[in-house]
């Protein structure tokens, strides 16, 4: 009960213990005080949001489901902001830390605006084509407070029969819009990893909304929003194809057209902060609980299995990658461990809630070995892979690992779990009666995603290049953040950096006269210094 707390004298406080008739008599003698007491004891009306008989709390709303889905969306958001922002800013050279982090930051923000204006309904709305939904805003109250439904409308076959009934979670459409935005945003942030260190930031600003509208929405609608691959029974539990194969292939394609970094950057591109890189990777790992745990759109059995399998696969892949580094290179690599963690998370995404945990271990081992082989062995033997400057090896860690996960899901998905997740009858892995048919569907879907991303990404990049230069000028490429943004990441001094001397240090430098530069720096104590590598 909300109300003012009335502090009364002791004699008046004892009035509350006497019979009501006596109190009524006392009320005539002290009407003001008793009225205050009566008003303070009366319960005021509840806010509309808490009244069960008002539209704010419809009977279909499950507050637990809604709370979990919002939490899962937040976890996925943390993967991008700050997870990948921190990872990108630390895994590159010092001179590209600001630019790399900003590319991720901008992609996240621009995706949200385009998502609510047009893209959400293109991915999850009414069918326009078998692979594309109708564009429209997701901004009005009537739409956002209604019960979530996907596909947004029921789709009927030629004979008038319902193809697949829509799924209706127990929360409003606004929650679904938010969760799916986070998945769309991280796709573009991952794509950026292939282009770090040379793409013109203005070209990136133009590229992101176009790619979201023309590429991501097609893959999302086809596999999740009621498109032809969805009804065909292709399994993509949480984005192995929609997110990871798409970002890996699109990033590789864009890197081909943008061109490589400077030779000096390609030859030496050591991380500027290993510890921050691990911290960013850790945020990705923990945030994946929302990534895969939110995919069933409810806190159910599949969500629990998915979160467990996600962690198991990541650990198995990290250990496998590290062991391979030790065997072939003689020592473990921290960067390699983070890459192994990433491939394990990516690989399990296609079937996280649909396979047994022993299968997650197997998928993790495969994720730590197959991408390792393509990166460490195949990459050095392929002229195409060597020609394309994929800065963070997004092709290997996302495209290869995502494709691997999709195929393994076609083998290992169990019928008792797939029936809880998909409405398409007979969807199961080859080892459980699905035969080669399910694997064939998985491969065909991967081929569609790869082909679409190659063609559309090429078209977008070439179109943007007609208006905006795709690459930074050579002078900006040589200098880095300071030339591109007028900002630098660290106030530290090191080899090749410019240092700005403070007033006190300048006075001390004058005092030492004609001493050598090294002696002057030692005398000044290297104060007031900024990085420009």
UniProtKB/TrEMBL annotation:
Gene3D superfamilies: Ammonium transporter AmtB like domains. The keyword Transcription regulation does not apply. GO terms for molecular function: ammonium channel activity. Keywords: Ammonia transport, Membrane, Transmembrane, Transmembrane helix, Transport. The keyword NAD does not apply. It is a multi-pass membrane protein. The chain crosses the membrane at residues 67-89, 101-124, 176-197, 209-232, 238-258, 270-291, 297-321, 333-352, 358-379, 391-413, 443-468. GO terms for cellular component: plasma membrane. Residues 68-490 form the Ammonium transporter AmtB-like domain. Its main location: membrane. It comes from the Eukaryota. Pfam families: Ammonium_transp. SUPFAM superfamilies: Ammonium transporter. It is found in: Cell membrane; Membrane. PANTHER family: AMMONIUM TRANSPORTER 2 MEMBER 3, AMMONIUM TRANSPORTER MEP2. Involved in ammonium transport. Belongs to the ammonia transporter channel (TC 1.A.11.2) family. This is Ammonium transporter. It comes from Aegilops tauschii subsp. strangulata (Goatgrass).
């Amino acid at each position: 009960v909300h109300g003012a707390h009335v502090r009364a004298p002791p004699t008046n406080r004892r009035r509350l213990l006497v019979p009501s008739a006596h109190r009524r008599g006392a009320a005539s003698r002290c009407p003001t005080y008793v009225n205050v007491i009566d008003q303070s004891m009366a319960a005021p009306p509840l806010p509309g949001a808490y009244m069960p008989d008002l539209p704010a709390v419809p009977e279909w709303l499950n507050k637990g489901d809604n709370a979990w889905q919002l939490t899962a969306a937040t976890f996925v958001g943390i993967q991008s902001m700050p997870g990948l922002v921190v990872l990108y800013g630390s895994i590159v050279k010092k001179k590209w830390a600001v630019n790399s982090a900003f590319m991720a930051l901008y992609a996240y923000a621009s995706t949200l605006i385009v998502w609510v204006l047009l893209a959400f309904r293109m991915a999850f709305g009414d069918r326009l084509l078998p692979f594309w939904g109708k564009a429209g805003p997701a901004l009005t109250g009537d739409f956002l407070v209604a019960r979530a439904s996907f596909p947004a409308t029921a789709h009927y076959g030629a004979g008038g029969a319902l193809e697949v009934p829509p799924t209706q979670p127990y929360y409003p459409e606004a929650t679904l819009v938010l969760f799916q935005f986070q998945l769309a945003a991280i796709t573009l942030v991952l794509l950026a990893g292939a282009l770090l260190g040379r793409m013109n930031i203005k070209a990136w600003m133009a590229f992101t909304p176009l790619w979201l509208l023309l590429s991501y929405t097609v893959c999302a609608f086809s596999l999740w929003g009621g498109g032809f691959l969805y009804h065909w029974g292709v399994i993509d539990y949480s984005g192995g194809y929609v997110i990871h194969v798409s970002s890996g292939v699109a990033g590789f394609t864009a890197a081909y057209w943008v061109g490589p970094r400077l030779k000096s950057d390609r030859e030496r591109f050591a991380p500027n902060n290993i510890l921050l890189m691990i911290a960013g990777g850790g945020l990705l790992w923990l945030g994946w609980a929302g990534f895969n745990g939110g995919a069933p759109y409810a806190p159910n059995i599949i969500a629990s299995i998915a979160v467990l399998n996600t962690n198991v696969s990541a650990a198995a892949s990290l250990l496998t990658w590290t062991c391979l580094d030790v065997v072939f290179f003689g020592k473990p690599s921290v960067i390699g461990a983070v890459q192994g963690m990433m491939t394990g998370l990516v690989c399990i995404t296609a079937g996280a809630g649909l396979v047994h945990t022993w299968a997650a271990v197997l998928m993790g081992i495969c994720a730590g070995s197959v991408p390792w082989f393509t990166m460490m062995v195949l990459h050095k033997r392929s002229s195409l892979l060597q020609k394309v400057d994929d800065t963070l090896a997004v092709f290997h860690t996302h495209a290869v690992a995502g494709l691997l996960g999709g195929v393994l899901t076609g083998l290992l998905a169990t019928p008792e779990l797939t029936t809880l997740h998909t409405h398409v009858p007979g969807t199961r892995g080859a080892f459980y009666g699905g035969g080669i048919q399910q694997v064939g569907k998985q491969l065909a879907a991967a081929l569609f995603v790869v082909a679409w991303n190659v063609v559309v990404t090429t078209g977008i990049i070439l179109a943007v290049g007609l208006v905006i230069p795709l690459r930074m000028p050579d002078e900006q490429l040589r200098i880095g953040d300071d030339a591109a943004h007028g900002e630098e990441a660290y106030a530290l001094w090191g080899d090749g950096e410019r240092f700005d001397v403070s007033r006190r240090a300048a006075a001390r430098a004058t005092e030492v006269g004609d001493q050598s530069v090294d002696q002057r720096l030692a005398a000044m104590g290297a104060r007031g210094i900024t990085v420009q590598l």
